[in-house]
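Quick one: C-alpha cells for this chain, please?
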Amino acid sequence: MSIVDAVGGLQNKRLSARSFDIWHANAMVDLISATDPTIEGTGLTLGQAQKWINMSVKYAIGSRVPGLDWVEPLAHIPIDRIVLAELGRDPTYQSALNCLPDGAWSKLQDGLAYLAFQRKLRQATAPSCPLALEFRLWLAAAR
C-alpha cells in the first residue's frame, strides 16, 4: 500500500487517538517493508518512515483534503534535527524529548519510544495540537 493510499484511507474515518496511533504504527511497518521487501535491512528506518508519513499527513491536512480535518489534532509531528533542536529550547517539551533515545532521528528504530514522544507532545500542546507547535518551531528556526 502506498502512503497516498494509506492517508486517503483516513478520509471520513474519525478515529480515536489510540486508533490513529495504531494506524500510524501499521503505516510505518508497511512503508518499511515496502522499502525492504527482502528484509535485508536496506530499507527505511522507523525514523525515516515516520518523517515520510508525517509529512504526507501534514501536506494532506494543509491542503485541506476533504474528510481529513479530524486528523489535525491527532497528527504526529515529523521528527527531524530542526524540530528536535527547537523543542530542546523549551523545558515544556523535555518530558517528550526524554522519551527518545540519543542519536540521529533518522536512525530511530524504537517504535515505543517514538509513540511515547508523540503522545507526550499531544499532552503538552493541548488544547492546541502538535502540528500547530511544529509550524511555530519551523518559524522560530527560520528566524
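Residues 3-142 form one domain.
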